[in-house]
Amino acid sequence: MGPAVHPRVSGAPAHGLPTRAGVGPSCVGLPAGPWPTITDFLVEHFPAISRATWLARMASGQVADEFGVAVTPGRAYQGHMRVYYYRDVPDEPLIPFEARVVFQDRHLVVADKPHFLPVTPSGPYLQQTLLVRLKNALAIDTLVPIHRIDRETAGLVMFSVEPAERDAYQALFRQHAIEKHYEAIAPWHAGHRFPMVRTSRIVQDEPFFRQREAAGEPNSETRIELMEKRGDLARYALSPVTGRKHQLRVHMNALGVPILNDRMYPPVSPTPADDYSFPLQLLARSIAFTDPVTGQGRRFESAFKLQH
């Protein structure tokens, strides 16, 4: 008796599964190992997902290998292969704020993101993300963010349209060939002199989603200027030279002037839930660069305003 033949998932490309409702499939690599079936591996590797859930996904064609061939419940395990599947997010919270597209051509999309909207799917957010909303609205499955800003931060985010051009745009950030300017509202501190440059080493903290400054060679740099003082608060212009996770929030907190309404810096345990009445007062205000594909000078500005 020959080996079992598994059909291709309907509509699946040769590299896995197609985009569905603006969401691309998740991927897991299969290492060498003793699991009897791929199902057994998935159940062990993802303890929060029940066997019944995996079987239901397989029955509806939501699990396939890297060649687009369906993964069935009894399919024998094969290491050194990738498996694609759709992630479900039950009871996904609705984000009641909308982004707007400020620029679009066949190379680039620039969106103005509201506070609280994640850029890409993660955790409890899937459909309620900037990337998925744009894919659905613009019908561009190849859209990929060139950079990211925090979910709590509002402002400009750039997306590449053509996969072949993606690295050229991402190189702008690697080579510091792009001007990024943020605004923030934070306490006034009479002991600081502006403008100033903050450099430090930023490392992962506990829990994993927080960052902190640590001793050692600096890996982050932010230029900080005072725009105006209003009583006990001030408006600051922040220009990150590097792009470490939470860099602006970590630097401002380390200076003793944490950004207004920041739920994580300084650390509070447990982290407070979102309160839409008090958005983080941090805005990705403008971005400027020479387009590496067209050679044109580009400058974009956010239409959002901070509250204070």
Outline the fold blueprint:
Layout: E1 26-30, H1 38-45, H2 51-59, E2 63-65, E3 81-85, E4 100-104, E5 108-113, H3 130-138, E6 144-145, E7 154-160, H4 166-174, E8 179-187, E9 196-204, E10 211-214, E11 220-230, E12 233-240, H5 247-254, E13 282-290, E14 297-301
Q: Which bin fits the share of residues in helices?
A: 10-25%
Number of strands: 14
Biggest beta sheet attributes: 11 strands, mixed
Described by the principal axes of the CA atoms, the overall outline is: globular
Q: Kindly name the structural category.
A: alpha+beta
Number of helices: 5
Low-confidence blocks of residues: none
Mean pLDDT level: 92
CA-CA gap between termini: 74 Å
The radius of gyration over CA amounts to 22 Å
Order of helices and strands: EHHEEEEHEEHEEEEEHEE
What fraction strand? Answer: 25-35%
Architecture overview:
- The longest helix has 9 residues.
- A hairpin with an 8-residue loop joins strand 6 and strand 7.
- Strands 4, 5, 6, 7, 8, 9, 10, 11, 12, 13 and 14 form an 11-stranded mixed β-sheet that branches. A 3-stranded antiparallel β-sheet has the order 1-3-2.
- It is an alpha+beta fold and 308 residues long.
- The chain contains 5 helices and 14 strands.
Provide a brief overview of the structure.
With 308 residues, the protein is of the alpha+beta class. The chain is built from five helices and 14 strands. Strand 13 (282-290) and strand 14 form a beta hairpin.
Which tags fit this structure?
single chain, 308 residues, alpha+beta, 11-stranded mixed beta sheet, 3-stranded antiparallel beta sheet, 5 helices, 14 strands
